[in-house]
Amino acid sequence: MSNIRFLFDNKLDTTGAVITASSTVTAQVSQAQKNGTGSGSCVPGGVYTGTTERTYLIIIDLAGDVGTATFKWSSDGGSTFSGTLVATQAHPLTLDNGITVYFTAATGTDFILGDRWDFKVIFGYGTAKLIDRNRNTEWRSSDGFLSESFSLIQRLGTQTYVLSLASLGSGIVLAGTGTTGQIWKSTDSGATWALIQRLGTQTEVYSLASLGGGIVLAGTAATGQVWKSTDSGATWTLIQQLGTQTHVFSLVSLGSGIVLAGTYPTGQIWKSTDSGATWALIQQLGTQTYVYSLASLGGGIVLAGTYPTGQIWKSTDSGATWALIQQLGTQTYVFSLVSLGSGIVLAGTAGTGQIWKSTDSGATWALIQQLGTQTEVYSLASLGGGIVLAGTYPTGQIWRSTDSGATWALIQQLGTQTYVFSLVSLGSGIVLAGTAATGQIYMGCASIVCGFLSPQSIQALIIQDHNFTSTAIMSLMAHTSDAWGAPAFGPVAITWAAGKIDYYLSATQTYQYWRLSITDAAQTDDYLRMSELFLGPYTATTRNFAYNWTRGRAPYMVGSLTGLHPDAVVLGVPEVLMCNFPLLPDADRDTLVDTIFPALYSVSMKRVRPCWIHPDPSVANDAIMGYWEGDALALYAQSPTAYWDLPLQFRELVRAMM
């Protein structure tokens, strides 16, 4: 049995840490409570963008009807007012942080001087719930994932490149690889992969396109072949080589069985109108040699990206004819294209790794930015809602935009990979990335980032009351800044356990920024949750509690926390540990009595702060959240030199029994 560990100094709670999550259930805006005699109403709304709970107050400061009456408003319950004599209107008016109000009329005078309404903004599932020491509250992600970090899933055999990815729906995903032209398949949204087959003697599967109904096409090299599957990738048949072309770099489905292919070495467009069964040459795109990317915008509009002069070509008749639009600056390759809808299209280029944007269906283009020092933007994927990801070379980075490509931020480098060749969105925020130089699959994660005011020494992580499935992939990393290229520490894998997870670092790590990443493709709740998160050091005594300790469960009234004290309001069945520490040496006595107990016990308020203990660290995932109780603890905290024997009782803090 290992010596008990005390985990009482949660750095997330004691150092003013800023905790951000890749997604969180948005704050809830309550209904307005009215106090007044006017007949009209005030209706609050909007999406709150602030970080703290607030009470808003609306007071009529000039009587009248909607449009004539005016109001003043406060976001701190009336302590201060941010606006006065603001005209009432029947359409939403923005106050601050995304909060709006509008006013409705009724019979008689709508608003009387002094009419007032108050409403609250409540974070039911915000990140603050992770450190409130209350197991009855919890953080929830809004959609499970937003791909703010990525976790390694697996390498696909001995393949060097994952060149293409395609989602078929219902969790089925296909990957095309090099250097032996293989097809791999996942049926669980990318969590696990199995080799299906090599496509003849081909060396690369550069492109994949799902046509629906289980029909999938693959474009290959080194002899420019198209292969077809009609059973969701389980089996494959060679259709034909596209003329004398050696590479089929791109495929795009336009619906109704119409498919286009872009090729090398003479930059040709080929077309099929029968779901890939037969193909006809349409034309070469000028003097271009590569047609590296294709994107369908709907309504027969298709764009093509080329090499060697980085051109955009456009068709408005489903690929029957093509016209040159423009070269994208001095770029040589247009490696990737993605349509965001409503005529918005993004292009990823090389040789200086730029993002270009069109807002008129590809008719005109504007340079947005180079992605750091990257030279090639190989892949783009739209997650919806203006969120777009980009995969790059030469340091295998993922970049992210949340405003439809207007601005970009580096998310992370994918291990030691140099290329992010392919990206695919599976919906619900789940994204997969295919890489080189060792043919790996990564999955986008939900993430929680903890930024401290200064570097903090961390030894332990505890995740309490989570809903992660047994196939969840978790990792912890740390860095000197909030720019997560290649982290200074980690990522280290966290082993799953049901309900509660504890993890001890092999050595103390001291960094200012920490990130917990969670990938859970099998999650059926459509969100991730946890009630408490601990990140900090632990303290262990050199002498353990006596051998005759007891541990059991006993009915007890527990519940929500008010300040530091658990109010006994709900019936629970917590664990109770009786721990007797006899004849402690000076060092252990000082640790317990001078350091731990004063940090947990308020003499003036006579309240105990909950903490964690791990009675036997050799038993994994057995840390317990609770509080020391009994008059003896107060006595020891007040008179630390009076006793050497410490008989203590620790009571678990449980979730309410509903």
Provide a descriptive summary of the structure in words.
- With 658 residues, the protein is mainly beta.
- Among the domains are: 28-123, no CATH class; 542-652.
- It is built from three helices and 57 strands.
- Strands 2, 13, 38, 39, 40, 41, 42, 43 and 45 form a nine-stranded antiparallel beta sheet that branches.
- Strand 26 (290-298) and strand 27 form a beta hairpin.
- The longest helix has 15 residues, at 586-600.
- The chain is globular, with a radius of gyration of 30 Å.
**Average pLDDT, all residues:** 89
Rg on CA atoms, Å: 30 Å
Strand share of the residues? Answer: over 45%
Count of extended strands? 57
Topology:
Elements (H helix, E strand, L loop, with lengths): L4 E3 L3 H4 L3 E4 L6 E2 L3 E3 L5 E6 L7 E9 L7 E5 L8 E5 L5 E2 L4 E6 L11 E7 L16 E2 L8 E7 L5 E9 L2 E7 L3 E5 L7 E5 L5 E9 L2 E7 L3 E5 L7 E5 L5 E9 L2 E7 L3 E5 L7 E5 L5 E9 L2 E7 L3 E5 L7 E5 L5 E9 L2 E7 L3 E5 L7 E5 L5 E9 L2 E7 L3 E5 L7 E5 L5 E9 L2 E7 L3 E25 L8 E7 L9 E6 L5 E20 L9 E2 L1 E5 L2 E2 L9 E4 L2 E3 L2 E2 L2 E2 L3 E3 L2 E7 L4 H15 E2 L4 E2 L2 E4 L9 E6 L1 H8 L7 E7 L6
Antiparallel strand pairs: 1-46, 1-55, 2-40, 3-11, 4-11, 5-10, 6-7, 6-11, 7-8, 9-10, 12-44, 13-40, 14-15, 15-16, 16-17, 18-19, 19-20, 20-21, 22-23, 23-24, 24-25, 26-27, 27-28, 28-29, 30-31, 31-32, 32-33, 34-35, 35-36, 36-37, 38-39, 39-40, 40-43, 40-45, 41-42, 41-43, 47-52, 48-51, 49-50, 52-57, ...
Helix pairs in contact: 2-3
